[in-house]
Design a protein that fits this description.
Helices cover about 30% and strands about 15% of the residues. The protein is of the alpha+beta class and about 250 residues long. It folds into two domains: about 40-175, no CATH class; about 190-245, no CATH class. A hairpin with a 3-residue loop joins β3 (about 90-100) and β4 (about 105-115). α2 packs across α3 and α5 crosses α7.
């Protein structure tokens, strides 16, 4: 018996395109307005795109709140998704990135956005630019491997929020390297001759006891030993000698 043709899976309808009115605003969107009649973009940011700025609270010895309720703009951060939502609502025709500097540890990018005209601009499009960078010093974790992408995201965020007068810093703009820098400094310190001694003995009195044993055995004699009150007082040259003797 001949087989029938397989039934085609119906294609879901495409979402309707944004329809903008004569003022350049999307129909069906509940816009907020300032007293002068311009769009108030800050109140239009959905709470789902905002969260407390942890570093602001921790730097002041305060507990980080669990919600954004009652927080000021300088106590908040906005997600990249929130910036994209604002750009979509405002309307733009193009985004262009120009790499101003690109090295293994420093990338600087200029973002240019052409915003469409609306009633606020007399129907004229507006070109707005802003710049941001990404370095090994102001990024952390996997971000250090994607400096170009991070720099582009930061420039985009800065361009959109500055054009729309949004005073909440973007999460993409935050320097998240402080904890990494502290860990790196600690690691660098532990790799110095003095740091190796401290790691080996931990307690300076235990180290002094070992020095006395070396002195009594005439293995190591140094009249300056009595002036050493901490591991940092040990000259690096002497620390290297002692590391070999105390293995």
């Amino acid at each position: 018996m001949p087989r029938g043709r397989p039934k085609k899976t119906p294609t879901p309808p495409s979402p309707p395109p944004f329809v903008r009115n004569a003022e350049g605003l999307i129909e069906g969107v509940n816009y907020k307005f300032n007293e002068d009649g311009s769009v108030a973009w800050r109140p239009m940011i959905s709470e789902e795109h905002l969260f407390p700025n942890r570093s602001w609270f921790e730097s002041r010895g305060k507990d980080v709140p669990s919600s954004t309720e009652g927080l000021q703009d300088n106590q908040l951060l906005i997600k990249l998704s929130g910036i994209k939502e604002l750009a979509r609502l405002r309307g733009f025709s193009s985004v262009r990135y120009t790499v101003e500097k690109c090295t293994h540890d420093h990338v600087a990018v200029l973002c240019q956005i052409v915003f469409i005209g609306n009633y606020e601009t007399g129907g004229q499009e507006i070109i707005f630019e802003d710049m941001a960078n990404a370095t090994l010093q102001n990024t952390s974790s996997f971000a250090t491997k994607f400096l170009e992408t991070i720099a582009c995201n930061r420039a985009f965020v800065r361009c959109v929020r500055n054009f729309l007068n949004i005073h909440i810093v973007g999460d993409e703009e935050i320097d998240k390297s402080s904890h990494l820098a502290t860990a790196s400094a600690a690691l660098s310190s532990s790799l110095t001759p003095n740091g190796i001694l401290e790691k080996k003995f931990n307690d300076f009195s235990y180290f002094q006891a070992s020095l006395r044993l070396l002195w009594n055995s005439q293995t190591y004699r140094n009249t300056e030993v009595s002036n050493w009150k901490d591991f940092e007082d040990v000259p690096p040259k002497e620390a290297r000698v002692l590391i070999k003797l105390l293995k």
